[in-house]
């Protein structure tokens, strides 16, 4: 009987040891699972961060492209405005030149006219003088 009890105790101890071993294995497995889950989480987080970085980069690129386009448009507009202004300036210059030419011509004409008038006046005066002289001569002869 005692032998049986001893064996039983022995069996109990063995069972306890087995149970302990099983519990330890389960804990170990749980720990491994936990670790795996943690690693999975880390990976996901890393992937998320990577994706976020990628998205950020994409956004930045898009913004840069948009800004570049805007700048190009601005430059184009500025160039066209400059072209228009240049055209206007040239036109103004041309008109000014024309006006000056016209003025010059008018002045020339005016001077010519005045000169002619003067010459005519002189001629008339001379003619008058000559007529007077002739008359005087005729009177003297008589």
From TrEMBL:
Keywords on record: Nucleus
Biased composition annotated in UniProt, kind: Basic residues: 42-142
Compositional bias ranges of the Acidic residues kind: 23-38
UniProt-annotated stretches for the region Disordered: 1-142
Keyword Nucleus part of the UniProt annotation: yes
One BP annotation, GO: nucleosome assembly
Composition skew (Basic and acidic residues), residue ranges: 1-22
Molecular-function GO term, any one: structural constituent of chromatin
This protein's name: Uncharacterized protein
Native species: Bursaphelenchus okinawaensis
Taxonomic placement: Eukaryota, Metazoa, Ecdysozoa, Nematoda, Chromadorea
